[in-house]
Amino acid sequence: MPHQHKYVDVACYAMTTQQALQLVTFLKEKNIQFDTGLTDHELLQIQQNFDVVFPPDLKLFLQTGLPVSESFPNWRKALNDKQTEQIIFDWLEDPLSGILFDIEQNVFWAPEWGQLPDSLEQRFSIAKQNIKKYPKLIPIFSHRYISGDPNENDNPVYSVYQTDIIYYGYNLATYLSHQFNFKLSDNFQIPDAPKTTIKFWSDIAS
What we know:
Layout: H1 17-29, E1 34-36, H2 40-50, H3 56-64, E2 65-67, H4 75-78, H5 82-106, H6 120-131, E3 137-141, E4 144-147, E5 157-161, E6 164-169, H7 172-180
Antiparallel strand pairs: 1-2, 3-4, 4-5, 5-6
Helix pairs in contact: 1-3, 5-6
């Protein structure tokens, strides 16, 4: 059954500085390497350069400590290194590229896009026009993404591989604990459902 674009009856819990510090500590125990957290100026530069808006919990986490191990986006390095910058631009484009691949190879088509055109070129054009209107997904680690829209705490985290999209955490903290196999302490509120659905991405997520 398709998700409806509305809030569900799940409380929103703003991440605290203490919780962000705990997440960094948990991840360091899993041998994730960290650099110092992003400054306000760096965050502004990153968001302008990549046309993204970090949701509040991800913003706080990245300002508490910047993970720089393999498969994490090195946002700071991307400000000064063209190759890293291009890697992140490609990362941001991967969800669209995967959908286009499935349109061509697996006849994927979202019902909300209207009738399926005969021409592959037309299919690509319609898909690109629509996906530009949807919330942009921001990479967290490998092919795990979070949306910055709405710009609120507790947006869900998705695993995105072409149109194989699944929930990988109902918020940032539960995602990180799932991905890196650690238990959250008792001061974390653990949601049992997404606080909100994200247009399109939640519709095709399982």
